[in-house]
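Protein in question quoted in full.
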Amino acid sequence: MPAYLPAMPQNACYDPCPPRVRVCDRDVQIAELRQQLCNMRNQNHGDVRCMQEEVCNSENRFRMLSDDKVRNDCESRLIIDKTCSEVNDN
């Protein structure tokens, strides 16, 4: 036995390398988990992107409707003022 190895009983079997099967299984599990995380990030990122686009579209529709309302209110007010002015002139 080499001097740097700990003393072991005579009948004990010493394997300086850990079993490769466990390491490979861990590597496979790590790779699978990494892939699952990437898939979840991509799915959630896609969902988030869709939601952001929907929110943006809704905000744009809201602004357009608000602008139309303000414009219509101003036009209506001008028509009412003009009509009132004509009635007062008569």
Notes: The chain has one domain: 18-90.
